[in-house]
Amino acid sequence: MQTSEVTCQKAVLTPDGDLAVEGWARANYFAYNRDVLPRRTAGLVEADIYTLYNPGASYWITLALIDDGFKSTRFVSFTDLRLHRSVQCSASSRHPGRMPRLAASSSEDSWSTFLDRDCRLTLTIMKRDEKRHLIFNAPGLVLPDGSVGLLGDFSLLQERTQESISSCMGRQDDPKAFHLAQRILPLPVVSGYIRRGREKDMLAMDRSLAALSWTRSRHMKHLGRMFSATALSGEESFTFGYGCEKELGVLVRDGSITHLGEVDFNLHKDIMKPWMLKDARGDVDLVFTPQCTLSPDCTGCGTTVFGHFSGTVTDAGGKITDIDGTAGCCSLSQS
Predict the structure, then answer these.
(1) Verdict on whether the full-model pTM lies above 0.90
(2) DSSP for residue 171
(3) Mind listing the pLDDT tens digit for each residue in 90-120?
(4) CA–CA distance, 331 with 334 (Å, rounded to integer)
(5) In whole angstroms, what is the distance from residue 334 CA to residue 222 CA?
(6) Rounded to whole angstroms, how far apart are CA atoms 130 and 109?
């Protein structure tokens, strides 16, 4: 199947569970029907990962919900860009059989909540209309500055007219394999706070932004390394992908996206050296300068490197956007 833009809703899977469509879209046009899959589906991974950036206090927070059909994993991480250090708290639980906990669509109203037995981590994420509300608490997490406890309660705004980027890819050797992914950014924080120890940050006042990485994947392991990059800014934001997420390259300006396609991630064996991001057409010419890394202690989450981007991105109309020190992150994983 050729990879092309999808402009209307299409089913991802046939009634037999085979991949029915490949391509990319500017909206959530890929209809994912989990019911056609067996109750206990081997190789199925579903993940909702939120990344929050607070420019005023200079930190990133990652909230992740991951289900693989047999186990649910939840984690929260805190990355201090001033101290160049990340910490995290994670918890997992096994469940018998296929008990869906994450929504089959990123656009439908939904909720998911998690509390581990030791009360080390609680996490609740809700979507209602245009709002995404996130609540979490990691009371025993020791932060990079030595303070103890991380708590958050905040809302993100996703307007109905806001464009996003989605892609659906498969494997030639396996008709039942698929990788369905969507990136929604930027999502402004409209209310709420983060409490770090005794410090309280009002996120809307700090002009905080977030991004959602929404993924549903089956039988896509052992295909080599996958890369992604995301930058959040009040003026221009962007995201890129490589491998089975190669169609997720976009520049976001004023709520509209320019599709940029696949970007090559040229990096050293030492991931803390600068990364070079370029595409074949010459639209993307960026340098990513790392500051610190996060390697979650849960399987399949890969490594995230936080830092900033500099260079240029050219949109479809030929307009060149200068990127000068925009905060962002790059992720790499062995799929």
Answers:
(1) yes
(2) E
(3) 888 776 554 556 899 999 999 988 877 777 8
(4) 10
(5) 7
(6) 9
